[in-house]
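Help!! Second protein's tokens look totally different from the first
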Amino acid sequence: MMQPFTLRDAAEMTGAAPMASALTYTGVSTDTRTIQPGDLFVALRGEQFDGNAYVQQAIDAGAVAAVVDEIQDGVAAPQLKVEDTLKALGCLALGNRLASPARCVGVTGSSGKTTVKEMLAAILRQEGDTLATRGNLNNHIGVPLTLFCLEPAHRYAIIEMGASGVGEIAYTVNLARPEVAVLTNAGEAHLEGFGSYENIVEAKGEIIDGVASDGVVVLNGDDPACPVWRARAGQRRVLTVSADAAGDADYHYRNVRSENGQTVFDAVGPTGWSQQIRLNLPGKHNLLNALMAIAATRALGARDESIVEGLDELKPVKGRLEKIALQSGVNIVDDSYNANPTSMKAALQHLAEQGGTGAAVLGRMAELGPDAERLHEEIGHLAARLGIAHLLVVGPGTEGYVRGFGAGAQQFASHEAAADWLLAHSTPPMTIMVKGSRSSAMDLVVRALIDKVNN
């Protein structure tokens, strides 16, 4: 649990009326279903709910007090009244962050940030107690909730920061206060909310502003946004990674090969540093992800053995290029967790490198705004150019894939229908790659394939 704070502390942090109470809380919750004894309940408001209505329920579940924007009658527990409970949530999270000695790494980017977060965690856990963002708790509510998990024993904190608009990361990075920031790339994810690619670059770059002047910024030197972010970093130390061994990046890789189901490569860094790295995560883009994790953790002083052992032990995240043996000679690459144009291109490139017959089963890429049709067509065209044998698309909003791919692409109304076609036409050796935005629920295709083979 987090270190104890008094209600007097909470009032000072949030701007609530001064409170003399020395009553302490050891956790913060916004959900009565997860209240633990000793928690402080923060009553958030939303379009469909009003947390103020659940204050008594929170107290009954063990909360010692509540932060509200409307005092609730009949509640026999302290209530701290504030103007904005969401803002108060952030203030409380910042209070716990500032009380923690943990060294923090902030991670953002249009794609790859969750994988890099897991790589960072795998390495730093070899060094000491490490907190890392769970699931996708990476927004203006998720980051505070993550920071409440900081305990006195934690030596490191890895905070993932997502955004769907300009200004969001500026807020969350001020709460996390990272010593090192990692920016994976700027792609066209959430283009609908941002309005333009330039706004995406601007928004992701906000994480740099939250790093102290003596901090470190790790950049993907192969990403077009790198020069913009490098300039924004000012006097901060910048470390770059690249696939180009002949370039001027601080870190690159060489001697890539496959051994016993792992991707093995030599990571090369400044002043002649080099280590052989073994990864259980497929895809060339994950080599760059690993380099970013290496650069960041070395900046924090991580030992070489922690880097090597941590990455060797890391397992694929479910639904992110997860390899599943379906039947003899037929494998699924489950990348159904989410999708945007950048990650979709990387996944198709990985599929094309597998050999045998390749089948891409795609759901729509959400939140792309007016450019959605063009971006889906580009992905379909790329699949054709890479020699993907079969393109199956599922659900509405996928017509652009079909137009881009041309003859042979097929559209299905249901996940099960796509799975039925694949099983009827599977010819070993074959790799089936499944991907789409979360809203397209492409994991249902994976589940249907497995269920139909096993039953």
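Here's the second one for comparison:
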Amino acid sequence: MEQKLWTKEFIVTSFVNFLLTIMYFLLMVTMSNYAVETYHVSVSTAGLAASIFVLGSLIGRLLVGKFIAKFGILHVLVSGLLGSVLVSICYFFANGIEMLLLIRMLHGFTVGLVTTSTGTICVQITPPSRKGEGISYYGLSAVLGSAIGPFIGMLLTSLNNGFEWMFALNILASVVCILIFKFVRIQLPESETSVVSEKTKAFRISDYIDKQAVPISLLMLTIGFSFSSVTSYLTLYGKETGLIEVAGYFFFIHSMCVICSRPFTGKVIDARGANIVVYPCMLLFATGMFVYSQSTAPWMIILAAACMGLGFGNFNSAAQTIALKNADPSRLALATATYFMFLDLGFGLGPYILGHIIEGLGYRSLYMIISCIGLICIPIYYLIYGNKEKRAFASS
């Protein structure tokens, strides 16, 4: 008998992740534009206003294992959401770029606590035999959020007081999530708490990072670093190319392609391994970036969005499955945090560093370079994991 996946806990956790992702992308794709219009800063500084959120999230993920061990996962969840409400209120009072950067970093910290906790719950409650499928479906909640968030954000930027509406919606979403999680009653296994608490007596890097998850997480860092150039500069690139209207639909198209493919790819990963999914996805990602770099017409933006949706979207879930595959059950929270810490680091460093490249070379040259990086990642994946899985299937 097939183990049940769609439990009440799985549905509620996925819905909360959906709301948080809407708010993340709503602000991420508009924040650089907000910084330029409101504080008249450079492109690289505007990118930092977007990406410093992710660096704050990275710090939150680094510490979340300790917090969960000490206070329990639901307490960390609710505390993170309460912190998100308080920090989001501060957006209304940011009177300079320095204050905005501080608010963004603190906001990222609170969201890092929450999303790592919800991700850990998902992994804990998903049946082992359906792990790839479960992670793929859970990831779809983020995909839907990434489709709706940018669309709402770019719509609101055309309205008077649009950014104030964004900040208010962020507060509302956090409050709704707090209320929703009053209905969830899940704790991490006792083994998770004991392992972490025993190691809090002395500093060890293994308290914060699961070494088994590091290789694939480093590759995800590179891909996330590359894709951050799209999430942070979509609005500005759309304005420069005269394709701002179709750019508003980029993440919708991107997400629809992921939604249509992920249920299938998740089952394929469970049945036949990750390689059969990863190689085509990485090639599609590189192709999408190349088309995006050459975009001169709406159909090219649409094609690029579809390629990157199929590529980045499915590689993300496949890489997460690989990161968790060999993790000890007592370290699933740590493996989850490790994966997302590296992903956050890529998304956090990307917009600021790539913003300097944009100032020197322009958008099109940057996206050409990133397309080449995507191709280089294919043999890197083979070396760190692909060849191992190939040998494992050959010997079975």
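Reply: Different proteins will give different token patterns, so don't panic. The chain has a mean pLDDT of 84.
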